[in-house]
Amino acid sequence: MHTCPVFDWEAAWHAALYGPDGFFARGEKPSSHFRTSPLVGPELAEALLELLSRVDAALGFPPVVDFVDVGAGGGELAFAVRSLATGSLASRLRVTAVELGPPVSLPGVRWTTSVPSCVGLLVGHEWLDSIPCPVVTGPSSDPWITRWWPSLADGAQAEVGAPRDAAWAAAVSSVRGAALAIDYGHLVSSRRFTLTGYRAGRQVPPVFDGSCDITAHVAFDACAAAAGGDWVLVSQRDALAALGVAGDVSGSGWDWLESAARAGRVAELRDPSGLGSFGWLLHGNGVEVSELLPVLPPWRPNPASFSGV
């Protein structure tokens, strides 16, 4: 009697993205396949610089302050932060891009393949969603599923978020200051199988041949619990406003045009049915989160952001 081998989703997903012929290993950049916040304009980098400045002050202005961009892709966010920094912060700022794919030569940005120890702000922008996970079919006795996906129906599939939990806990422990995960996700009350692919600007079925990016929503509550400590989970829409990113239109002539263009970009970043629905999971490590953000409404997933195909 012959039995069919069990398909190893996690291994296939990892090979499809990071193996020798994988999507990212051969140099593909997310910017070529889907629109994301750093590509909209400089406003996300401005907000993160404001957050970094608050971390810097809470740490007592160390001689070197880090901005670490984990899952940096083409380095757009890291380079924008480096370029926009001014004053004392700029003179002490060390910017590191963490990426498994080939590095991009950008002035003032160091590249590495592993998360370094740092003092300052670590950001994982759409990083956790690209960490491969096992996939199970209900019913399942997997301990992670038992705790974080207890309503998994018979025959339904689920991504087991344990690898993301471990990666995020390690990232938070690597930084003295703050760590921020920005991503699309879900909570235990709203779990849904979301594994999907992206290729050339279009959502496609996830195939494991290296031809497309493969992602799945992040279980924010599980990641937060794994890292522990002092944390908040808020929406990008609310966080950007709290960090001073506004879209007011004013002035006349060229100034009016510039402010109108900025208002359009800010509106895109804060759109509650789009990028504004992203979750911001902020952990303090040696810094109180209350020193970095005011009290904001807790993040809730937007059902419209679920995009499994």
From TrEMBL:
Protein name according to UniProt: SAM-dependent methyltransferase, MidA family
A matching Pfam family: Methyltransf_28
Keywords: Methyltransferase, Transferase
Keyword Cytoplasm included in the entry's annotation: no
Highest taxon listed in the record's lineage: Bacteria
A GO biological process held by the record: methylation
Family annotation (InterPro entries): NDUFAF7, NDUFAF7_sf, SAM-dependent_MTases_sf
Molecular function GO labels: methyltransferase activity
